């Protein structure tokens, strides 16, 4: 039995504004709650929510993870235009003028890419094609074991996993891994398997290479942990 990926959580200066942007771009409905943040509910096979939480820590440097949006369901240029209409901006991270993908930043500077049609790696994925992460081969192996998602790419220290039920791929680009600067603005919320025990799942994740660092956000029921690359994630108590 393995953890379930419940949500990708994003720290935000203005959670409502950022949720409106991503809801408009993805076409997902929103739901609110003080403890659970403002959530976007997927209407496709993505399989996990996106949740926005208030944070007083501003963005410093490039995020460790970003969305790759495909052009399998929507035209690339139209997606870019829609993002700009909602408040995105073009971003230069050194991709060069001939890059086929378009790099954008959301209203709070979080990077994301719009991938052109015909990309073979994301051919079977929906609009949210991948969550592309900066990370080691070891951390790709860890998350494969933690979630029970098989490796769909493992070459030249680059790794990728995907749920057996479909949805986006999660990828790690391998070395060199950028030095971590402060707390990541994006992290995973996991839950133990159905009818599972929180402590037993925490112990299992530690055996796989994670580290427990705290008791979680205010309100309890969340154990804060670090993956082998030092990226934060939380394990939620069963409900």
UniProtKB/TrEMBL annotation:
<dbReference type="InterPro" id="IPR037523">
    <property type="entry name" value="VOC_core"/>
</dbReference>
<dbReference type="InterPro" id="IPR029068">
    <property type="entry name" value="Glyas_Bleomycin-R_OHBP_Dase"/>
</dbReference>
<feature type="domain" description="VOC">
    <location>
        <begin position="124"/>
        <end position="238"/>
    </location>
</feature>
<dbReference type="InterPro" id="IPR041581">
    <property type="entry name" value="Glyoxalase_6"/>
</dbReference>
<feature type="domain" description="VOC">
    <location>
        <begin position="4"/>
        <end position="117"/>
    </location>
</feature>
<dbReference type="Pfam" id="PF18029">
    <property type="entry name" value="Glyoxalase_6"/>
</dbReference>
<protein>
    <submittedName>
        <fullName>VOC family protein</fullName>
    </submittedName>
</protein>
